[in-house]
Target: beta-aspartyl-peptidase
Amino acid sequence: MGGWAIAVHGGAGVDPNLPLQRQEEAKQLLTRCLNLGISALRSNASAIDVVELVVRELETDPLFNSGRGSALTEKGTVEMEASIMDGPKRRCGAVSGLTTVKNPISLARLVMDKSPHSYLAFDGAEQFARQQGVELVDNDYFITPENVGMLKLAKEANAILFDYRIPTVGYETCGAGVESPLLMNGLPISVYAPETVGCVVVDGEGRCAAATSTGGLMNKMTGRIGDSPLIGSGTYACNICGVSCTGEGEAIIRGTLAREVAAVMEYKGLCLQEAVDFVIKHRLDEGKAGLIAVSNTGEVACGFNSNGMFRGCATEDGFMEVGIWDQ
Model:
């Protein structure tokens, strides 16, 4: 065993003109979450407990697109989704369409631990949350003034806004002003930076786990489900690795991106970073995305083909890094 390792992300696809203050705030949050996970791992917490703990922290802070601070649907509401997976026996839990659950990742954990199912959505997931006694809040809790402004911009542009963190003043200098928008399933969108959150961990026993949580796309159609709650696409963990993805959900779904990392390790004999690089290069077609991963031997890796990815990682031997831009 190579010891424990942890990685976190706050989304792939970062506008190159993102204000420096916002960049610093993101780095501080990632550092705080890493330290939270490191402390738990040093106390011999299991990988599955650590990924839930860290993602709960990310959901509580409105900086990224999960929990409080989630992107808004076309109706101005929040619909959240999350998934979690425990590598040793490939147990998993996922939820979609949440509107009142304060911490979606913990409800996903309860689906895994306390239900006979792997995935619950919308009214059924909300009913299960009430039965389990999880903390519920009004939908307004998740909505921030910043996101209300970004939804307005998206509606004026008649587009899905990927980078909903573009400043409302001077946004014409950011990605929203691109002349040749990206395409999603052949349809134009404006800019790219979903800012999903995730965490992957291998603990001191070599057990891997992964967790991912998001509010989805700004101005998305109500009922839209992305890659984050889909096991094998946005989240995957098995006995050799744990993976959490972020980016263009439809492309990640088509490429079953998270599972592909494990597959090329198993079938091609690649090491973790080689597997990550292979998948980013060969499994996204024209999509933009990123991912973080750990292996059961204590390796940690990340990869992305977008402008950047909010990310951080640490290992038991003292290595720690937080970054946004090129690897």
Observations:
- The first helix runs from residue 20 to 42.
- The first strand starts at residue 5 and ends at 12.
